[in-house]
Write a structure and sequence with these properties.
By secondary structure, this protein is of the alpha+beta class. The chain has one domain: Alpha-Beta Plaits (2-Layer Sandwich), CATH 3.30.70.3090. It has a four-stranded antiparallel beta sheet. Helix 1 crosses helix 2. It is globular. 10% of the residues are buried.
Amino acid sequence: MKKFIVERVLPGAGKLTADELKAIAQKSCEVLNSMDEPYHWIQTFVTDNKLYCVHIAPDQETVREHARRGGFPIDNIAEVSSIMDPTTSV
């Protein structure tokens, strides 16, 4: 499985209420549970006008199918090629 960062432009995302974020998360989980492919939504970072979602899936098409079924925008998908953090410097 591959890891993807999904960028979704959503004006006003940073002002979404806890209930609105809950509804989006519930819809995402509902779609994930209905998919035939192995798929994992790891987390989403919410900024003022965008969502940055971390997904693990077989391919980009599966990520796009999740978005289509859930009615979620996709403005960019990038496959993660490697990860670095402070421990990389040691």
